[in-house]
Amino acid sequence: MDDARTPQEPLPPEEPLACARCGTTADAPPLTWTCSVEDGRRVYFCEDCARAHLRAIEARLDSSWW
Fold first, then answer.
1. Distance of alpha carbon 17 from alpha carbon 30, whole angstroms
2. N- or C-end of the chain: fewer Cβ atoms within 10 A?
3. Which residues pair with 44 in a beta bridge?
4. 32 confidence band (pLDDT: 50, 70, 90)
């Protein structure tokens, strides 16, 4: 079979990520940040906020409850 693929368009540059709790920014999601899906949208929390609210995150509470 002939697998003819078309080159994909480059993705537009993304805006820096911001912690949904404190506003800390990063160019890309660091490994130490936590990602959550709340109300159908993806939100990120920095390492400090994630550590401070670890039990609430593990209990799957929305960040509005913290």
1. 10
2. N
3. 19, 35
4. very high
- pLDDT score recorded for residue 52: 94
- The overall longest dimension of the chain from CA atoms, in Å, is 55
Residue-wise pLDDT tens digits, 5-29 = 666 655 455 678 999 999 999 998 8
Six-digit token string for 53 = 């609210």
Amino acid present at 24: T
Q: How far apart are the first and last CA of the chain?
A: 55
> What is the spatial distance between Cα 17 and Cα 34, in angstroms, rounded to a whole number?
12
Decide: 57 and 48 in contact? Cβ < 8 Å. Answer: no
Q: What is the pLDDT of residue 47?
A: 95
